[in-house]
Amino acid sequence: MQHVQEARPTSAEPEAPTDLATMPAIGSPYRLGAALLESLAQEMSALAEQASALLRTPPESLSPDADIVAQIVRRSVPRWHFAMLNDTERNEALVTALERGIPAGATVLDIGSGSGLLAMTAARAGASRVFTCEMNPLLAEVARNVVDAHGLSDVITVIGKPSTALDAGRDFGGPVDVLVSEIVDCGLIGEGLLPSVRHAREHLLAPDGIMLPSAARLYGKLVNSEAVLKLNQVTTVGGFDVSLMNTLATRSHFPVRLDTWPHRFLSEAAPVLEFDLARDALEPGERTLEFLATADGEAQALVVWFELDMGNGLVLSNPPDNPRSHWMPGWVPLEKPVLTKAGETASLRLRWSDFTLRVSL
Questions:
Q1: Less crowded by CB within 10 Å, the N or C end of the chain?
Q2: 3 state SS of 304
Q3: 3-state SS assignment for residue 310
Q4: Average pLDDT of adjacent 10-residue blocks, the chain of 361 residues
Q5: Nearest residue to 42 via CA among 24, 34, 281
């Protein structure tokens, strides 16, 4: 259990929240930084109020229907978990990959328990021990209950920690034989695939261990879509220039259900990134991308999608023309629009961190 230091009593009155309108005009970065801190303070205050309400609620009255439970669940558990668990294509591919790829008697680590589905699949595939970690305490508890309801608690251990906080000797009794790491978002890396696999490969997986997936690739096309552009950009409304709102626009990748919006592709598909998850450094970096334009136009973004190599010829992917996938394609906004001319090559600069994709000229 973590120890929390108690707040020291004070006789001073708490300071009033910062009034941005009265602050000296000493530069927008300062004012923006103050606003970010104020926003964070408000969020922390709301969390403290929820925690206080929960402490005042008798445990016997807590149920999924209780208002305080609903508030915390809504804040803590993303709704995409339900879409993911109803993604038949994804589930069938992963179940098949684990059934084919896990040797009998192996020890397995599954990063990101969720409902416990992949951990239970690994146990059914013949693993002797399965460890699955989940950093969200609510999901970890649900996974424990699901595993217990299926009579698999003697094989599966749910650990309520992020994988980067695990120690092979302490938590598993030694390195595991198989690593399952299906922690990807629309742009492949947004859920921390790179740092999680870097750590697990060095500290948790046996030297000759099996990785599922073993490789990951990202592809992209240049695209024009005024409709999608307006999901992340504004100019004038009612005769007023409100473009300063664009200070808060998303500059890295985000998911878009592209087939629901008018759009036009302006280039052929091209490789964007490729990772050998067993051997590559998996560090942040940058590279030049080149796209063969198929039409004249103004490209506003790069639309990306991934492929996961699950072994034995199985590939899991979310291309824009596959609306069955719960993973939407990723929209990576360009810092400035790029004019394309059919038959010519457009060059862009891709930068990726552990979690984000950004593209510039």
A1: N
A2: strand
A3: strand
A4: 38 44 56 88 91 87 84 90 96 96 98 98 98 97 98 98 97 98 97 98 97 98 98 96 93 96 98 97 98 98 98 94 95 96 98 98 90
A5: 34
Half-sphere exposure of 14 (CA within 13 A, CB side): 6
Q: Which residue matches tokens 């038949």?
A: 88
Torsion of CA 37, 40, 46, 48, to 10 degrees: -90
What end-to-end distance do the CA atoms of the chain give, in Å?
Answer: 49
Q: Tell me the β-bridge partners of 132.
A: 110, 158
Bridge partners, residue 203, by sequence: none
DSSP assigned state of 64: T
C-alpha to C-alpha distance for 73 and 77, rounded to whole angstroms = 6
pLDDT of residue 265: 98
For the chain, the C-alpha Rg in angstroms (whole number) is 24
CA distance 273 to 253: 14
215-360, superfamily in CATH?
Hnrnp arginine n-methyltransferase1 (2.70.160.11)
Helices (H), strands (E): how many in the chain?
8, 17
- Domain spans, the chain: 82-180, 215-360
Backbone angles phi and psi of 133, in degrees to 5: -115, 145
Query: What is the structure's pLDDT at 5?
Result: 38
Phi/psi of residue 137, each to 5°? Answer: -60, -35
- pLDDT for 27 equals 55
CATH class of 82-180: alpha beta
The CA–CA distances, whole Å, from 295 to 74, 204, 268, 306, 341 equal 44, 48, 10, 24, 6
Q: Where are the alpha helices (DSSP H) in 117-184?
A: 117-124, 137-149
pLDDT at residue 327, rounded to an integer: 97
Q: Distance (Å, rounded) from C-alpha 111 to C-alpha 109?
A: 6
Asked if 82-180 and 215-360 have one fold, the answer is no
Structure tokens at 286: 């940058």
